Each structure stands twice: as structure tokens, then as C-alpha cells.
Amino acid sequence: MIETGRRKAAVARAVLTEGTGKVYLNGVPLETYGPELARLKILEPLLLAEEVAKKVDIRVRVRGGGVMGQADAARTAIARGLIEWAKEEKPDLREIFRQYDWTLIKSDTRFKLPKKPEGYGARAKYQKSYR
């Protein structure tokens, strides 16, 4: 079963198969993946649905964006996959995720504004001097 998650420019695809609870991100075991804060963010759906997560192996492939954007995309993909996997076994899992944090299920659609020609970034403008 394949599920996707998005955050900013990051797109994650999670593949769930029957297994023993192993989680890999881009081929790296989750225990050794990136910064600790990103790892803890990705672990949230696995801790909330612990009995379901122990029965599946999850392989996540994440592309684009930064470290935290990828972490958010991965956690959304994992949560959606667990909901789909445990439809009959645990139908209230979606509600558990929704009460904890709605972005576990629904991807955050906010993007960075594009830079404008009159300034340094999206909103900042070049300073003017009147003398």
C-alpha cells in the first residue's frame, strides 16, 4: 500500500508491507536518521498507533525541501498509510490522529511566497534615500 504526504517542496511516499515494525527513510533506519527533532516528529504517528505499527514495515522515500519539511511530509505519509492499513482492525485511528494533530492526516499546503523584483525577498523592499 502506498500513501503520500506533502509539506512545502517536500514530497514523501510511504510503502507499507506486512512485517515487524521496521521503518526506513530513504534507505536509512529511522533510529539513525538525521536530526533528533526531525526523528521525533516522524515517530509521532508510530507512537500513537503502536499496536498497528508493530505489524508493518514502512519504507519512506522523501524528495525536495529541507529537513523539517521532509519530516512533516514523512509523518503525514506514514499516518495516512497506518489509517488505510488498519481500516478494519482499528477504525478509530483516524480520529485519534485528528485529535492529536490534524496535519498528521491533511498535508499543510502553505508555501513560501516568491521573491518580487523590487526587493530582497517576498515582502522586503530595497531602502530608499531621499537626499
Low-confidence stretches: none
Count of distinct structural domains: 1
- Beta-strand residue fraction: 15-25%
In whole angstroms, the N-to-C terminal distance is 66 Å
Order of helices and strands: EEEEHHEHH
Q: Tell me, what is the CATH class? A: Alpha Beta
Rg, alpha carbons: 18 Å
State the helix count: 4
Compute the average pLDDT. Answer: 92
Main beta sheet: 5 strands, mixed
CATH fold description: Ribosomal Protein S5, domain 2
Oligomer: single chain
Outline? elongated
Give the strand line-up of the largest sheet: 1-2-5-3-4
Specify the structural class: alpha+beta
From the 3D coordinates, which CATH architecture would you assign? 2-Layer Sandwich
Number-wise, the strands total: 5
Report the helical percentage. Answer: 25-40%
Tell me what you see in this structure.
Helix 1 (36-48) packs parallel to helix 3. It is built from four helices and five strands. The chain has helices spanning 36-48, 50-53, 67-85, 93-100; strands at 2-7, 10-18, 23-25, 28-29, 56-63. By secondary structure, the chain is α+β, with helices and mostly antiparallel strands. It has one domain (2-104): 2-Layer Sandwich (Ribosomal Protein S5, domain 2), CATH 3.30.230. A five-stranded mixed β-sheet has the order 1-2-5-3-4.
